[in-house]
Design a protein that fits this description.
This protein has 336 residues and is of the alpha/beta class. It contains 16 helices and 5 strands. The chain has 3 domains: 7-153, P-loop containing nucleotide triphosphate hydrolases (Rossmann fold); 158-229, Helicase, Ruva Protein, domain 3 (Orthogonal Bundle), CATH 1.10.8.60; 235-333, Chromosomal Replication Initiator Protein Dnaa, Chain: A, CATH 1.10.1750.10. It has helices spanning 7-19, 37-51, 62-74, 78-86, 103-118, 139-145, 158-171, 178-187, 192-209, 215-229, 235-246, 250-254, 260-277, 281-287, 293-308, 322-333; strands spanning 27-31, 57-61, 90-94, 123-127, 149-153.
């Protein structure tokens, strides 16, 4: 199901299959858990086999590559391992972030990558993070991953979530009522996988209780899921998430200092507090250093401006892309 959050990734996948890697190579797909990266890789591998019959398409996880490499070293069969991965016509690797901190495996994968790129072999990779954000990934690998096309799978918007629920229902032979579709789509937002699980739970409850699929069943089936999903975010949670992300301490965040390394995180913290904690401007100002409500309003306005200008001027001076920063912070708020 293609929506605004997956449109670019789907277009890149189709182009990779069509061109066989001639348009760009590698294709690196990243995004959160349950957004469809593995499904997309499977589609690319299948598309390659169908569009280019006879190609040797190898589709593995980074964990399988690592285990195979370690086993090859243990059994002195490195030549066979390298031949199996370097004599392919297409290499598709899922969960590349698994290579993090495994220095010897990263070195082996680097040599495999270089050998394939030199021959023009299409390489498709997927990870839960952008190459630059994978902790303890060597610069050599990160720069090579960035040498092709890097696309992000975003969380589906509400219209896409509705379409997914309807589609999954039809696959099960069920016409899910619009009210139930809306209820699931508006309350289960994190991933496609969770949407599928929510729908399955509703259908199972209806079947076991001998009742039609309706709002009463849906609310009963998803009560605990929604309760656990809709977590209350406190100001201290925002503070902790921002301090961790920017590697600043709480005292600095609340200080009078206007240096950019503290002022920008502070403004983002105020924006997030207003959006997620449900606190008033005055409460947020008092929490972040005894500031008045107009300071918080100004910070919120500034961040909104950054977001609007992001496509034209994507870099917040001194930091990364503003949209990505906020996405990371918001994804961490529940665990902060």
């Amino acid at each position: 199901m293609v929506g605004p959050g997956s449109q670019l990734a789907c277009a890149a996948a189709r182009e990779m299959v069509r061109s066989g890697g001639r348009s760009f190579n590698p294709l690196f797909i990243h995004g959160g858990v349950g957004l469809g990266k593995t499904h997309m890789l499977e589609g690319i591998a299948l598309g390659m086999r169908q569009a280019h019959p006879g190609l040797n398409v190898v589709h593995v996880t980074a964990e399988a590559f690592t285990n195979g490499f370690l086993e090859a070293m243990r059994t002195a069969s490195l030549a066979s391992f390298r031949s199996r991965h370097r004599n392919v016509n297409v290499l598709v690797v899922d969960d590349v972030h698994f290579l993090a901190s495994k220095r010897a495996t990263q070195e082996e994968f680097l040599h495999t990558f270089n050998a394939l790129i030199e021959r023009g072999v299409p390489i498709v990779l997927a990870s839960d993070q952008h190459p630059r954000k994978i902790a303890r990934l060597t610069d050599e690998l990160a720069t090579r991953f960035l040498g092709g096309m890097v696309v992000k799978l975003e969380t589906p918007d509400v219209e896409t979530r509705r379409a997914i629920v309807r589609s999954k229902g039809k696959l099960r032979g069920v016409e899910v009522p619009d009210a139930v579709v809306d209820f699931i789509a508006e309350n289960v937002k994190a991933s496609v996988r969770e949407l599928e699980g929510a729908l399955q739970s509703v259908l199972a409850h209806a079947s076991l209780m001998g009742r039609p699929v309706g709002m009463a069943v849906a609310k009963t089936a998803l009560r605990e899921t929604i309760r656990c999903t809709v977590q209350s975010v406190a100001l201290r949670d925002v503070e902790k998430a921002v301090c961790l992300f920017f590697q600043v301490d709480a005292d600095g965040l609340k200080s009078e200092s206007r240096v950019r390394t503290l002022a920008y995180p502070r403004m983002l913290a105020m924006y997030l507090a207003r959006k997620h904690a449900g606190a008033s401007y005055s409460e947020i100002g008092r929490y972040f250093g005894g500031r008045n409500h107009s300071t918080v309003m100004s910070a919120e306005k500034k961040v909104v401006g950054w977001l609007k200008d992001d496509a034209r001027d994507p870099l917040l001076p001194g930091f990364d892309n503003v949209v990505d920063i906020l996405a990371d912070l918001e994804s961490n708020l529940g665990a902060a």
